[in-house]
């Protein structure tokens, strides 16, 4: 058997050092890396591109299309009889059709006004009667509400009588308050007369006053000095003090 005879691979062991040394040995051929492109990237322009200005305005040759609403009913046009039937037909979750009671009730302004005013009047009446029953000293004389349906005439007569008594009570209280105020004024006037205060003042101190009363007592002028050696005010020409200016003759 010659030395150059090759041994078939299936006769060799599948694992062993013989295969490891062969796989671990580096290949002598260098690996060449090929890029996708060999061209160098183009440089970015330093200045932005400027478009050429047109000589004049060139409008488009075809204008935009006009928008048209799509047809609401793609089917054939309805006849007048069918349109009249649609007006009186009841659709779910829609307003009631014309000619029905609900349509008249919803679209009638007069009945809505009566309902609103009636509700407000009822609430105001309930508040008035409730407040009157709580604050009125004649509350024990008021008839119960059940008598309104049993004896309505006597019910309203009793209420009217209670209102008259309440009005008389309020009138007496007001007259008593006014009498007390008048007595207070008379007592003050008698006190002024007893202490001699009514000579300088008129009724309530609202009468007109002279210039001397408004100015008050005069301060002597000349060589006199004020407190702590302060010099007195300079004498005005003529030896008289100018009058105080009054606005509208009052102050």
From TrEMBL:
The keyword Transmembrane helix applies. This is Uncharacterized protein. It comes from the Eukaryota. The lineage of its organism: Eukaryota, Fungi, Dikarya, Ascomycota, Pezizomycotina. It comes from Amorphotheca resinae ATCC 22711. Residues 29-79, 220-242 are annotated as: Disordered. Residues 35-46 have a biased composition (Basic residues). The chain crosses the membrane at residues 111-132. Keywords: Membrane, Transmembrane, Transmembrane helix.
